[in-house]
Design brief:
Layout: E1 3-6, H1 14-23, E2 27-32, H2 39-46, E3 50-56, H3 63-70, E4 75-80, E5 87-93, E6 96-103, H4 109-114, E7 119-122, H5 125-141, E8 143-144, H6 147-162, H7 167-179, H8 193-219, H9 225-240, H10 253-270, H11 274-289, H12 300-309, H13 311-320, H14 322-328, H15 332-344, H16 349-358, H17 369-379, H18 389-397
Parallel strand pairs: 2-3, 3-4
Antiparallel strand pairs: 1-7, 2-5, 4-8, 5-6, 6-7
Helix pairs in contact: 3-6, 6-7, 8-9, 8-10, 8-16, 9-11, 9-18, 11-12, 12-14, 15-16
Length: 403
């Protein structure tokens, strides 16, 4: 058994040891109470390595560091609460761990090279098997990091920097808000590909949102940006794609997509202002009938209107009268309960989408995956993007992949 103690002195710097071990690995799993240093992770992901990162979602874990790596391909981020304090790095090749660093260092610049730390490298098979099992156990108890979790955490982190004495109280409030009645990964049923892919879709849409946010707010003041983006997908499919222009590349998207969005705004305002009409439908139909205060009073007529006005339900309604079948083949009590679970449960969104489609407790006849992923955006367009086939097709046309 080889054991080397690393204390961050000149000869035994943890950053150098991690760098050397990672070069030999195809997968790195990190459990760290606090995370702020992104240099390693960005380099590993750019080198096509897979990274599993388990953090405590509390300061001094850095919101901006999580945001920096969150949308990268190849990384999965989970979190635990304020009782999580483990720190170890496991290095794998071809599915087998070959080394582990365990000790006092967090994944921060201080922990990696500035602070006086005590860490050990373990290479003995017995210890590696045990530490791999420990990581899996913690992973099973943890929660998937959603964009809304990050949004909520940003306020906590910014306030922590301004007034550290309030951090403990705010942390407790954060955990109550995002974890109450939330199913952890151990109890979470296996989620289907379509439902899981909503997170990939969400990350990509948020990348586009950052590019066009200021333009949208200027052209469509008081309209949620996700609404204007949804009709932008329509323009990409029916107008831009037919002009056979070159797809944006990863290198030039930041320049091309804002220009395309400006073209779309001009086109939309010259062709009926559909973005404004969508915003009105969102506010006066979906958000009104399905608000937390009104959803328990939803009528069959209201449910029919909801179904018929979804992009995914409109065609089925016109051709097959699917809106009538929706309310006749599902009781209004179940429609209310299922849609309330989808829209307002604290379960992770991919699980909610999956349960609406496959769990008999929530599944509604004639209500498919596309309907669930549209509805959450229609009801709360300030929080969630609208997803359907049109959106997926537009993103592909713009050169994005959702895998």
């Amino acid at each position: 058994m080889q054991q080397i103690i690393i204390t961050n002195d000149k000869d035994k710097n943890l950053r150098k040891i991690i760098s050397d071990l990672a070069e030999k690995a195809d997968t790195i799993k990190v459990a760290t109470a606090f995370f702020s240093d992104t240099e390693f992770i960005n380099y590993w992901l750019d080198s096509s390595k897979k990274v599993d990162l388990l953090v405590s979602l509390r300061p001094p874990t850095n919101y901006y560091s999580l945001k920096n790596v969150y949308s990268k391909l190849g990384i999965t981020i989970q979190f635990l609460g304020d009782n999580f304090h483990s720190k170890f790095f496991i290095f794998y090749d071809m599915g087998r761990p070959f080394a582990c660093i365990i000790g006092s260092s967090n994944f921060t610049s201080g922990g990696l090279h500035k602070n006086i730390e005590t860490n050990a490298i373990l290479t003995d098979t017995k210890y590696l098997t045990e530490i791999d099992r420990q990581f899996s156990s913690l992973w099973e108890l943890s929660y998937s990091l959603q964009p809304t979790d990050l949004d909520n955490f940003k306020t906590v982190f910014d306030n922590f920097k301004k007034r550290a004495e309030q951090t403990e109280k705010e942390q407790a409030e954060l955990e109550k808000k995002i974890l109450t009645k939330r199913t952890n990964r151990k109890k979470k049923s296996k989620v289907g590909k379509d439902a899981k892919q909503y997170f990939a879709f969400w990350r990509v849409v948020d990348e586009v949102k950052e590019m066009v946010n200021n333009i949208s707010k200027q052209e469509y003041p008081n309209i949620p940006v996700y609404i204007s983006i949804d009709h932008f997908w329509h323009w990409v499919k029916v107008v831009w794609a037919k002009e056979n222009r070159h797809k944006p590349t990863a290198a030039n998207r930041n320049n091309v997509i804002p220009k395309l969005f400006k073209e779309y705004c001009y086109w939309d305002k010259s062709n009926g202002n559909h973005t404004i009409e969508m915003a009105k439908a969102s506010e006066t139909l979906f958000a009104k009938l399905l608000s937390e205060s009104n959803i328990d009073k939803l009528t069959k007529d209201g449910a029919k209107k909801i179904y018929a006005n979804l992009h995914s339900g409109a065609m089925q309604t016109r051709r097959f009268g699917a809106d009538e079948k929706f309310v006749s083949e599902n009781s209004i009590l179940k429609i209310r309960a299922s849609l309330k679970y989808l829209l307002y449960s604290n379960d992770e969104l991919d699980l909610r989408i999956h349960n609406l489609c496959f769990n008999t407790k929530f599944k509604l006849n004639h209500f498919k995956t596309s309907g669930t992923q549209e509805l959450i955006g229609w009801v709360t367009p300030d929080k969630y993007p609208i997803r359907n086939d049109k959106a997926d097709d537009a993103l592909k046309l713009l050169g994005y992949k959702l895998e």
